[in-house]
Amino acid sequence: MSEPFPDSLCHRCASLRRVNGANSTFLMCTALEVKYPRQPVVKCQAFVPVRNDLLKREG
Ligand code: SF4
Questions:
Q1: What is the mean pLDDT of residues 8-12?
Q2: Which of 16-20, 25-29, 45-49, 55-59 has the lowest mean pLDDT?
């Protein structure tokens, strides 16, 4: 199953949880009051990079 909104900032955020439905995957935010923000998210003040991003940056 392909990822929805592959360009969304949420995919690189530690607060993202993927919720699998019968035919699709939903992007749920665990940081904001709005659990399903309008996608694709391109800018977000609550963004926290996932650990993989941190490791890549540290090289
Ligand atoms: S905090 Fe922002 S970038 Fe992170 S999952 Fe929620 S909406 Fe997406």
A1: 97
A2: 55-59
Within-domain flag for 1: no
> Is 28 inside a domain boundary?
yes
Q: How many domains does the chain have?
A: 1
**What stretch of H or E contains 20?**
strand 16-20
Q: What are the b/e assignments for 21-56, b being 16+ CB within 10 Å?
A: eeeeeebebebeeeeebeeebeebeeeeeeeeeeee
Residues with CB under 6 A from ligand 1: 9-10, 13, 15-16, 29, 31-32, 37, 41, 44, 46-47
The residue whose CB lies within 8 Å of the most ligand 1 atoms, and thus the one to mutate among 5, 10, 38, 43, is 10
